[in-house]
Structure formats: C-alpha cells, structure tokens
C-alpha cells in the first residue's frame, strides 16, 4: 500500500493568488499517480508535455496496465520522472512499484534447452557440463554487476560533434546514453527513447554558452560531456507584422524547460539556457508552461511581470490574451 503522503503545496503568482493540493491516500501506485496528477490540476496532455512521456503510457501507468508498457527499465524511468515533476519521493515510488511486483523486475521467460541430449552421455558427464555452464554464467553475472556498480554510464553526444558558432540563438543537441540512465542538460531533465537516444532543442544566450550533458545511472555514477556554443546575432525579420499579444521570456539565473503555444501552434518546446530570451506574438492567445518558474521572467505587452514562481517550481498553461491584466 502506498503510505499516506501530504501533497499539499501552495503556488503564489506574486499577486496574492494561489492554490493548494489536498492529501491523497491510495492502495495502488497507478491510482496514486493519477490522483496526484489530478490534485495538481494536470491533464494528461500537460503531464505529457512536462515529462515528455507519451499520453498512452501515462494512461497505462495510472490504470496499472503494465503489459501495455515497455520493459521494467523504462517503467522505472517513467516513475522517476513523474516523481520529480509531481514533487514526490522518488525512492518511495520505486519501492512501491517493486512491492507491487514482488520485489523483482518483469521476469523474462526461461529459455528451454533445445539441445538434444545424446543418450550415450553418462550422468557424470552431463553433471560436469551443466556445472561448468552454470559456473560461466555466474562469473559473467557477477562481473557485469561489478562493472555496473563501478563504471560510469555510457554517454555519447553526436550533435554538435564539437564546439561551434551558430547564427541566431538556437541549437539542437542529440546523443545516445546507456539504457536506464537519467540524462540532464544544464540540470534540466531530458527523456530518452527505448534505444537510449535523445534530442533536445536549446535556446542560447548571446555570446558563449557552456552546455553540460550529464548521464547518471542507478548507482549514482556519472558521465559528462561539455560543449561551448557561441551564438552570433542573426539579421531580424523584415516587415514583421505587429500582433496584439506579445510575451517575452528571459531565463536566469538557472536554465528552464519552456513550452509555448501561440494561437494553438507550438512555438517553443525545449530547454532555454540561463541568459537566453525569446519573444512570441499572437493574434489572440499565448499559453506558457515553465518547469523552473523561479528562473522564468515574463514581460507581457511591454509590462514586466517578474518571475513566475519559485526555483524548481512547475507552472503550466498560463494564459496571455488580448484582455489586459488587472
């Protein structure tokens, strides 16, 4: 049973308004994750945006439909990511998952030995061969466990291949990591696919940007790759139309994962580095989500609104429309 956990938290928008989440007590992990999401007023689409987990996988997790999910390694990764975004105890969530599955990962079916036994072998010969086979398996297993504990996880950054200079303020990072390891870019979480590959769009600050990619395995071993990307100012658009809704985002002192829609079209989805800015215009409405509200400063139609919240706090689906803020 998932122990009772107080998920009450208050969010202050800087103008005295706020909201709170109630305590939740549930029997099963899937139900618990669903109730926490609803208590934090996340719909499946928003939770998918913040965690980069497919909506179908989120629904299967909350239903406890484990057969519809990928392997145990990915399920653990999903649970860790949800715990970070929802503000839960990551280790407690993993322990509950293991408890519900008998303290073991998804069992792999044993492969039957299809080798035909020659009845000319004596029982003694068979015992010796089986003992040698089991001994080799045991040595290999122990060696692999020792390597997993002592060695840092595999990490390869394929794009960009080295330090570079770009025109404008955007760059794409892509790479590959050991399956099951957690990946961050400048301390912002990045999800990987089933093959350990990841791709992330970054918004750069003017000048030299120090980018650090970190992979961390379950034994807390780390691998790091760094890149320096210099951003040079590119020529601005000519005759850009003026729209009634304009929002400028300034990120700092830390990086932040930002999602923005302008009139229903996604215009930003990815990490913005500290010191970077982005201006978005729309005819009717802009939606803004930040995974680090304390490092997200907002200017709306020329009016500075300050930061959205606290460091590390998730603020989602903030609306900016043609109606002036009071």
Note down, in words, how this protein is organized.
- The chain is of the alpha+beta class and 326 residues long.
- It has three domains: 10-100, 434 Repressor (Amino-terminal Domain); 155-232, Immunoglobulin-like (Sandwich), CATH 2.60.40.10; 245-321.
- It is 25% helix and 33% strand.
- The chain contains six helices and 18 strands.
- It has helices at residues 29-39, 44-51, 55-63, 72-86, 90-100, 123-150; strands spanning 10-12, 18-20, 155-159, 164-167, 170-177, 182-185, 188-190, 197-203, 207-216, 222-232, 245-251, 256-262, 265-272, 277-282, 285-290, 296-300, 303-307, 315-321.
- A seven-stranded mixed sheet has the order 3-5-8-13-12-15-18, covered by helices on one side. It has a five-stranded mixed sheet with strand order 4-10-9-6-7, with no helix packed on it. Strands 14-11-16-17 form a four-stranded antiparallel sheet, with no helix packed on it.
- Helix 1 packs across helix 3 (55-63) and helix 4 (72-86) runs antiparallel to helix 5.
- The model is unreliable at 1-26 and 105-115 (pLDDT under 50).
Task: Considering the chains and any ligands shown, give keywords for the structure.
single chain, alpha+beta, 434 Repressor (Amino-terminal Domain), Immunoglobulin-like, 3 domains, about 35% strand, disordered N terminus
């Amino acid at each position: 049973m998932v122990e009772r956990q107080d998920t009450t938290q208050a969010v202050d928008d800087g103008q005295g308004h706020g909201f709170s989440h109630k305590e939740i007590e549930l029997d099963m992990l899937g139900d618990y994750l669903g109730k926490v999401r609803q208590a934090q007023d996340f719909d499946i689409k928003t939770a998918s945006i913040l965690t980069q987990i497919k909506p179908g996988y989120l629904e299967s997790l909350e239903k406890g439909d484990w057969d519809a999910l990928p392997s145990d390694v990915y399920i653990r990764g999903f649970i860790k990511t949800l715990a970070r975004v929802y503000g839960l105890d990551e280790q407690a969530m993993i322990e509950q998952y293991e408890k519900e599955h008998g303290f073991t990962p998804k069992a792999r079916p044993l492969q039957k030995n299809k080798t035909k036994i020659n009845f000319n072998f004596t029982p003694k010969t068979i015992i010796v061969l089986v003992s040698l086979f089991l001994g080799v398996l045991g040595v290999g297993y122990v060696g692999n466990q020792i390597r997993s504990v002592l060695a840092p996880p595999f990490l390869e950054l394929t794009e960009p291949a080295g330090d570079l200079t770009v025109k404008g303020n955007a760059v794409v990072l892509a790479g590959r990591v050991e399956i099951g390891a957690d990946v961050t870019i400048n301390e912002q979480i990045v999800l990987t696919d089933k093959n350990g590959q990841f791709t992330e769009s970054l918004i750069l600050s003017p000048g030299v940007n120090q980018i650090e990619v970190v992979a961390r395995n379950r034994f807390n071993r780390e691998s790091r790759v760094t890149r320096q990307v210099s951003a040079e100012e590119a020529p601005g658009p000519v005759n850009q139309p003026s729209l009634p809704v304009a929002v400028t985002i300034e990120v700092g002192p830390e990086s932040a994962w930002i999602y923005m829609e302008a009139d229903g079209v996604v215009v930003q989805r990815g990490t913005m580095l500290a010191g970077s800015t982005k201006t978005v215009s729309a005819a009717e409405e802009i939606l803004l989500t930040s995974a680090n509200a304390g490092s997200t400063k907002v200017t709306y139609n020329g009016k500075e609104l300050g930061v959205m919240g606290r460091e590390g706090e998730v603020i989602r689906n903030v609306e900016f429309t043609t109606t002036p803020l009071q």
